[in-house]
Amino acid sequence: MSDSFDVLWLNASPILKRFDKPLLEYLSGYISVAQWEYQQTKDEASSIDQAVELLYEFLEWRDRPVHLAGHGMGGAIALTFARRFPQKVRSLALLAVAAQPANNWQAHYYFQRQLFSISRELVLASSVRSLFGNQPPHTTKKLVAALDKDLEQSPTSHSLFKLVYLPKGGVSMPMMVCGSKTDPVVNSTVLHDWLNWLKPEDKLWECPEGYHFFHYFYPQQVGEEILSFWKRHNLHLLEASALSFSTSTN
């Protein structure tokens, strides 16, 4: 496989990938970034294992390890892959990923559905306010539809009947964990739980604002911090264009 990129951004949420675009556009001005996308089929069991296996097939013949990065579920897949195949990963950059990787926005959605006797639509509307802040009614309506679709497409094992958990712990390669001080999902307390596993070369950084999708609202500020981390680990910054790859089980 060609080594035509240095960084691989993972996305497992086709409907929400638009919120990655500003950060990826910023990063691609300095480094060669490829996008790997995973879309779960309707008949497929909800699990990130299939995504991890497909990612390994994609990177199996690559000549050198890659810098992996991702937000939310994409970051959880990157983390799981890095633990299983550490020889394939040069560094890890996780955005809005808790030390308990299954603690994502969907876990919060299902927890509210279990706790309160309110409709799916009302919980989704509440989730929009939590994840994006107060938005105009027409924007809220579009975001509710997007989150509703993400519940169907994202490879999470959460449901109304059970919330699942993934292994906690660190990784052998350098790792950066990013969060936002105004994110109600991966809040400061949850984010700082990572300190139990960070190594001296690792980095934890919080964006002052931006809610759960802080990389969308503050792409340059987030990008500068990530580029600084990569530069410390010998990733040369060059003018480059973003590449794109997609994977599904269709």
Automatic annotation (TrEMBL):
InterPro entries referenced in this protein's UniProt entry, alphabetically: AB_hydrolase_1 (IPR000073), AB_hydrolase_fold (IPR029058)
SUPFAM superfamilies: alpha/beta-Hydrolases (SSF53474)
Classification via Pfam families: Abhydrolase_6 (PF12697)
AB hydrolase-1 domain segment(s): 51-222
Origin: domain of life: Bacteria
Name of this chain's protein: AB hydrolase-1 domain-containing protein
Organism: Nostoc sphaeroides CCNUC1
